[in-house]
Design a protein that fits this description.
alpha/beta, globular, 8-stranded mixed β-sheet, about 5% strand
């Protein structure tokens, strides 16, 4: 048997398709799966006649690989990854490389990188985005981990990755230890936000304008030709046009309870830990949580009355305003996500190249969007840009969109229609552009009940004061710290 260039463990949908992708680019691939029947089915089915070697034990799998061995896992995140690492290490030699291509938590990847390197091996945690089609035809790939391993996997990853319109591969080295999986986590968080924003636009068209699916399909298809051109808007138009066997829209027969696998939640947790206000993505996660309370919502809808929705007087203007609201909210989602990556890069010393990361998302991934090139330009002009809203292009776009954005939210509120992502995006925008916020009262309250001290606007920053607000307290104050 010819030695394989790379081996892959895990023959679920993503694994099978990524193997076929690798083989189509000229690489010989060994495969292994815990359930060996899947190996037999694959090599005698989709892989038949191709340069794909089926193996039926980890020993056979490892021995089938050329050195340095490149072992890629596409298994369920969590304990399964650790279990395979423990099983693989005794079978591998110094310089061999273990690659995790699943949606692992970046903290686990940091831990695993340190552990695997301590055994004389290299470890790479790779974010892979694009779903089934992306895995087969070209995903966006975000590898990070042991930097010395990158030259040994670079050619494979660049060859199998999606290619942007300028033929640039959508794959590139992200940074040390957990950097790749962190960036993939943020990608997925932005994906949560985008999906929620688009679903809210659909919800408003349906429940405020009372539009039929063919009309909504035309709107989304038209939006996909301009500033909102993106994969998610494109597939939304296609979903609107899809009918069930009875000729009725399939969408209306799908239960309004959205699942999630955890990366959006991890983004929100990371944002809280880093102290970055990723409000839109977090609202999108909570919107999914609320959607799963279907029985409770049904009970509440019978007991709690609201207002009756009334269509706006000028539906055409509302659609134009809605487009502005969706576009502005989308910019906020990206701004918050990139802000989180900027902070984490400093925290973990990853030196993330934010403009380059935007380039990796131009093709293959779920959030590919027309303005990713504009994000690259923003960071090329100023690599220390603190927030995308401070870039002239994005600032001007949001400023021009804000009147329609505000009208949409006002109408939604008056008509009792919940649009948490679009609303939270505007709240963030208005807070971000405010020189003065009411946090002075919060700090006064904290000092009143807990002697937590405060800074003064008429004194230099960094000096803290405590007031005996009631005349009954003492002069002792708490130490100052921020989480």
């Amino acid at each position: 048997m010819t030695k394989s260039n790379i081996g892959l463990i895990g023959l679920a949908v993503m694994g099978e398709n990524l193997v076929l992708n690798m083989e189509s680019k000229g690489f010989t691939v060994s495969v292994f799966n815990r359930t060996t029947e899947k190996v037999k089915k694959f090599v005698n089915g989709r892989a038949k006649g191709k340069n794909i070697n089926g193996t039926y034990s980890l020993e056979e799998f490892v021995n089938s690989l050329e050195k340095p061995r490149r072992v890629m896992m596409l298994v369920k995140a969590g304990q399964a990854v650790d279990d395979y690492i423990i099983k693989l290490i005794p079978l591998l030699e110094k310089g061999d490389i273990i690659i995790d291509g699943g949606n692992s938590n970046y903290r686990d990847t940091i831990r695993r990188t340190n552990y695997v390197e301590s055994k004389g091996l290299s470890y790479i945690g790779t974010g892979v985005s694009g779903g089934e089609e992306g895995a087969l035809k070209g995903p966006s790939m975000m590898p990070g981990g042991s930097p010395g391993a990158w030259p040994y996997i670079k050619d494979i990853f660049l060859d199998i990755a999606a290619r942007a319109t300028d033929d640039t591969p959508c794959a590139g080295w992200i940074g040390n230890d957990g950097a790749g999986h962190f960036v993939k986590m943020v990608h997925n968080g932005i994906e949560y936000g985008d999906m929620q924003i688009i679903s809210e636009a659909y919800y408003l068209m349906k429940n405020l304008l009372f539009m039929k699916h063919d009309s909504m399909q035309k709107v989304f298809a038209e939006w996909n030709k301009g500033d909102l051109e993106s994969y998610l808007v494109q597939i939304t138009a296609e979903i609107m046009a899809y009918t069930d066997d009875d000729g009725e829209p399939l969408l209306e027969k799908i239960l309004d309870s959205a699942g999630q696998k955890g990366t959006g939640k991890w983004t929100g947790i990371s944002a809280l830990e880093q102290g970055i206000p990723v409000t839109l993505i977090t609202e999108a996660v909570f919107a999914r949580c609320l959607s799963t309370q279907k029985d409770l919502r049904t009970k509440a809808s019978d007991k709690i009355s609201g207002t009756v929705a009334r269509a706006p007087a000028d539906p055409g203007r509302f659609i134009r305003d809605l487009k502005d609201a969706v576009f502005a909210s989308k910019i906020i989602s990206y701004s918050q996500g990139f802000d989180l990556m900027r902070k984490a890069s400093n925290e973990y010393k990853w030196d993330l190249k934010l403009g380059d990361i935007a380039m990796l998302w131009r093709a293959g991934c779920i959030i590919r969007s027309v303005f990713l090139d504009d994000i690259k330009r923003a960071y090329t002009k100023n690599e220390n840009l603190e927030n995308l809203l401070l870039d002239d292009f994005f600032r001007n776009k949001v400023e021009r969109a804000q009147e329609g954005w505000r009208r949409v939210i006002a109408l939604a509120v008056v008509n009792g229609i919940s649009i948490p992502a679009i609303s939270s995006a505007l709240a963030y925008f208005d807070g971000f552009r405010s020189d003065i916020l009411p946090a002075n009262l919060i700090q006064a309250q904290r000092d009143y009940f807990g002697a937590h001290t405060y800074e003064r606007v008429d004194k230099p920053r960094g000096k803290f004061y405590h007031t005996n607000w009631t005349g009954k307290g003492g002069d002792t104050s708490s130490s100052t710290y921020d989480v």
